[in-house]
Amino acid sequence: MTTHARGTFDVKVTPQPADAYADGGSLGRLTIDKQFHGDLDATSKGQMLSAMTLVKGSAGYVAIERVSGTLAGRRGTFVLQHTGTMSRGTPELTVTVVPDSGTDELTGLSGTMRIDTSGGGHAYEFTYTLPQSP
User: Fold this and answer.
1) Using CA atoms, how far apart are residues 107 and 101, in angstroms rounded to an integer?
2) pTM (2 decimals)?
3) Which helix (H) or strand (E) holds 132?
4) pLDDT in tens for each of the 134 residues of the chain?
5) How far apart are CA 63 and CA 87, in angstroms?
6) Which residues 6+ apart lie within 8 Å of 22 measured at CB?
7) What letters, b where the CB count within 10 A reaches 16 and e where it falls short, cover 111-131?
8) Which of 59, 75, 76, 91 could form a disulfide with 106 if both were Cys (CB 3.0 to 4.6 A apart)?
9) Structural domain count, the chain
């Protein structure tokens, strides 16, 4: 059965040394620390790689974060994979649970997460499936 989890999260990103190129582009790396609130009560740690282009508003990033906590009262860990692009200011983002990354009571978890920053903060909507508990 498909379920929806909603809430907010706090995020801290810490830039790491970047590679800048003579043409003005760059490749960057950041560490990610998050605290999820709401239906997902968890923390995560991750890494992000980014590419900035010479065209204002165009860039790309990938990230992997390991989430640890409870989802709908079930404890465990899982991994989220981010793939994001910005094409001249138009964003596109996909955040997906890495297959078979769930542990403990979250074994078998699959799903996608939508992130909303339109209100100035960070909110999530997590659409997921999870096998029935034993």
Assistant:
1) 7
2) 0.92
3) none
4) 899 999 999 999 999 988 888 887 888 999 999 999 999 999 999 999 999 888 999 999 999 999 999 999 999 999 999 999 999 999 999 999 999 999 999 999 999 999 998 888 999 999 999 998 65
5) 18
6) none
7) bebebeeeeeebbbebebebe
8) 76
9) 1
